[in-house]
DNA sequence: CGACTACTTGAAAAGAGTCAATTCACGTGG
DNA sequence: CCACGTGAATTGACTCTTTTCAAGTAGTCG
């Protein structure tokens, strides 16, 4: 399976210091691959923390196209919203477990939530740069590096729980382009494919050189 | 000049309820067009509120390319950072006045800062969608609508304090493409150019139909 | 009036998208 | 255990949009 992004709850969940401690959170809720976590228009309830698995957060356009804003893996906290209604969809990429974070006493948590919100903001800006200033090759390279970075096998081996379509929708590309880029990276010896969803990064530096 | 984005301090500055009230802020500092407000790598000091004028916040790439993340106009608050160092550049698009917000007592402000940070996050996600899911025409259309929305002359007349290059760097396009799209919009009667920087939106609905 | 910069326009090239056809991987049932 | 069916991924040929490179025009400020 996908051992890089844990699919079973680890003994201890690494948590941004101080946050989850002060939150009363319940047991882990399990989601099958593709299961909806929340949908646009729903009333905002709480925040979530990924225990295991991967979540995609996205918007859907009128014509059915999809823009994935973020992938969240174990220990990530997501679900921030400005208003009282959800502006995004979230669902499980693979089998996934979530903890619901209900803030016991909202006020004293804002400081830490602020920190988390700013982290999300940071990631959003990085993503903007990835899409705005990279060609197809650069975007896929950035994506692989991001994934490798978030699952530290010494940074060499990357497992992709998400489909090529998910990747394409995250990078604002088409499946075909993602596939062709991966083939080119493979043929140039920069990466190696153990299987379609399991990639070895042979020359990380080469990937880095392709990104803006 | 640019009467839509006020270039002189208005009598009363509209502020997200409760925030600026509780912040001790000093007098207005003035910046010439192009003047640097802060640079990447600088130590994070405080937040800023635009009194008049327009600010661009951007990143610079190794090869000199630029990605503008946001434009900020009167009453906008900007300058959020995750760490203690600036990750962006900010400078004045035109002659601009800023108030520095120094938080008197950090803790009790987090709640309101959180709200502001989440607004920034929202905008970043919108921007991501604009760039990720629109062609050149759609991006420019979205840009004009955004600008019109933020300076309400009944939504018909838009003044652009920023250059075509600024617009291009904001939308991840080239100057030439921005120019060509504007020409096409003009020729199809969707907009009218009072001058290069002053645009009348003749058919807002047509613009809306072009965006994702 | 002249010089500088901003903006516009044109032609050619490059990159990604689209449409269509295989190939591959995997789970199911014979 | 193997054949088959299904959905995912890859590959190919072609089109279209945007970039690139190169002039040219318009505004503006001294």
Global mean pLDDT of chain A:
88
Amount of helix of chain A: 25-40%
> Mind summarizing the main beta sheet of chain A?
4 strands, antiparallel
By DSSP (H or I, 4+ residues per run), the number of helices of chain A equals: 5
Number of strands of chain A: 11
CA distance, first residue to last residue of chain A: 32 Å
Largest interface pair: A-B, 35 and 35 residues
Describe how the helices and strands are arranged:
The structure is a homodimer of 212-residue chains.
Chain A: E1 24-31, E2 36-38, E3 47-52, E4 54-60, E5 66-73, E6 77-78, E7 89-92, E8 96-102, H1 106-133, H2 136-150, E9 157-159, H3 164-171, H4 175-187, E10 191-195, E11 198-201, H5 204-210
Antiparallel strand pairs in A: 1-8, 2-7, 3-6, 3-8, 4-5, 4-7, 9-11, 10-11
Helix pairs in contact in A: 2-5, 3-4
Chain A binds a DNA duplex (30 and 30 nucleotides) through helix 4.
Key words describing this protein structure:
alpha+beta, DNA-binding, 27% strand, four-stranded antiparallel sheet, 212 residues, homodimer
Architecture overview:
- The structure is a homodimer of 212-residue chains.
- Chain A has 212 residues and is α+β, with helices and mostly antiparallel strands.
- The first copy, chain A, is 33% helix and 27% strand.
- A 4-stranded antiparallel sheet of chain A has the order 1-8-3-6, with no helix packed on it. Chain A has a 4-stranded antiparallel sheet with strand order 2-7-4-5.
- In chain A, a hairpin with a 2-residue loop joins strand 10 and strand 11.
- The relative contact order of chain A is 0.16.
- The first copy, chain A, binds a DNA duplex (30 and 30 nucleotides) through helix 4.
């Amino acid at each position: 399976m996908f051992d890089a992004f844990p699919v079973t709850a680890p003994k201890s969940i690494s948590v941004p210091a101080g946050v989850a401690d002060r939150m009363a959170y319940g047991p882990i809720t399990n989601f099958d691959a593709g299961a909806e976590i929340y949908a646009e228009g729903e009333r905002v309830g709480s925040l979530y923390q990924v225990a295991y698995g991967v979540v995609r957060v996205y918007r859907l356009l009128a014509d059915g196209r999809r823009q994935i804003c973020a992938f969240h893996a174990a220990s990530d906290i997501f679900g921030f919203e400005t208003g009282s209604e959800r502006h995004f969809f979230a669902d499980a990429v693979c089998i996934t477990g979530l903890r619901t974070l209900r803030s016991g006493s909202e006020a004293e948590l804002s400081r830490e939530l602020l920190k988390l919100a700013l982290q999300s903001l940071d990631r959003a800006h990085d993503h903007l740069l990835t899409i705005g200033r990279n060609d197809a090759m650069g975007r896929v390279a950035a994506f692989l590096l991001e994934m490798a970075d978030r699952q530290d096998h010494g940074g060499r081996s990357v497992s992709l729980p998400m489909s090529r379509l998910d990747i394409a929708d995250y990078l604002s590309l088409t499946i075909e382009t993602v596939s062709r880029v991966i083939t080119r990276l493979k043929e140039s010896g920069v990466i190696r494919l153990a299987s379609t969803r399991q990639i070895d990064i042979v020359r990380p530096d080469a990937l880095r050189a392709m990104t803006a």
